[in-house]
Write a structure and sequence with these properties.
Order of helices and strands of chain B: H
Helix content of chain A: 55-70%
Radius of gyration of chain A: 19 Å
Oligomer: heterodimer
Shape of chain B: elongated
Distance between the termini of chain B: 17 Å
Structural class of chain B: mainly alpha
Radius of gyration of chain B: 8 Å
Structural class of chain A: mainly alpha
Strand content of chain A: under 5%
Largest sheet of chain B: none
Low-confidence stretches of chain A: 60-90
Number of strands of chain B: 0
Number of helices of chain B: 1
Largest interface: A-B, 23 and 14 residues
Chain lengths: 296, 20
């Protein structure tokens, strides 16, 4: 009976994952491996193709779900928004990193909302102290977003805009400092993470485990969080045994990734703080400001 | 609460679209 309960929990979290996250790993891998026929993504590999890509995406209908605002947009990650317009004539190249960064921010804010909905679907989460729910999201959400980037990436680049665009790693590296430093650590992490070959149902449980971390600073009532996490950890361990019977120590390897993840988030937040100081034109999305203020 | 008002709002509102 206990195993049956754990399997039911796995199914529940997988369903919530499918409900709230528009671009699954299965879809992303199909796009990356060219199995989508005529719907190959548009490739952005230099400034010219970036400009074309912006126009391309603005002409296309972004696939939307009920909970997503219908905005045509360029985005990073699982879909999203392009708040800024194409620059007019001069300064286009100077502004491009900032404009791109703004679109990343808008998409990230939308993704935070998706992760929040997913968190609320974890059994017991909404019964936790509301301040603790906030703390778990504040500390967990960037970790979750970085894990969710992995399926969209390969060693050569990343899918953006719901998988409609592929942006090359070399292009991201060619942006001016410090923008060029933002994605490279995520590529390095993702390429290694992808060798674990998790599928979407494994990912759903792993994301819930990350969210339910009882060691986040400032938690008021740790015990119920740890109890919830323990149950999800059991479900994850069973899931990996059943889904990857030949992958030895996968559970342990996956848990080790959580340590790497914290370092990546710390470095990411420091980069954003640096950007805030050095880029006069940069404004940070209020939701991201809330999350990153006094984070690490 | 004031420091994290958008997160609070996201947590307390159900699935209706939230003005971010």
């Amino acid at each position: 009976p206990e195993a049956a309960d754990l399997r039911a929990l796995s199914r529940h979290l997988y369903e919530a994952y499918l409900k709230y996250f528009p671009l699954t790993k299965a879809k992303a891998r199909a796009i990356l491996s060219g199995k989508t026929g005529d719907n190959a993504p548009f490739v952005i590999h230099d400034m010219k193709s970036l400009m074309e890509g912006e126009q391309f995406i603005n002409c296309k209908q972004i696939p939307t779900q009920e909970h997503q605002p219908q905005t045509s947009a360029l985005s990073v990650g699982h879909g999203g928004l392009m708040g800024a317009h194409l620059g007019s004539e001069c300064n286009i190249l100077d502004a491009v990193e900032l404009r791109f960064f703004h679109s990343c921010q808008s998409r990230s804010a939308e993704a935070v909302r998706e992760v929040t909905e997913f968190a609320k679907s974890i059994p017991g989460f909404i019964n936790l102290d509301l301040n603790d729910q906030v703390t778990l999201l504040k500390y967990g959400v960037i970790e979750v977003l970085i894990i969710m980037m992995a399926p969209l990436m390969n060693k050569d680049g990343t899918l953006i805009a719901y998988g409609q665009i592929f942006m090359t790693r070399e292009f991201l590296k060619s942006l001016r400092k410090p923008f060029c430093q933002m994605m490279e650590p995520k590529f390095e992490f993702s390429v290694k993470f992808n060798t674990l070959e998790l599928d979407d149902s494994d990912m759903a449980l792993f994301l819930a485990v990350i969210i339910l971390s009882g060691d986040r600073p400032g938690l008021l009532n740790v015990k119920p969080i740890e109890q919830l996490q323990e149950t999800v950890l059991h479900a994850l361990e069973l899931q990996l045994k059943l889904n990857h019977p030949d992958s030895l120590q996968l559970f342990a390897k996956l848990l080790q990734k959580m340590t790497d993840l914290r370092q990546i988030v710390t470095d990411h937040v420091h980069l954003i703080q640096l950007l805030k100081k050095t880029e006069v034109d940069m404004c940070l999305h209020p939701l991201l400001q809330e999350i990153m203020k006094d984070l690490y | 609460k004031e420091k994290h008002k958008i997160l609070h709002r996201l947590l307390q509102n159900s699935t209706s679209p939230v003005e971010l």
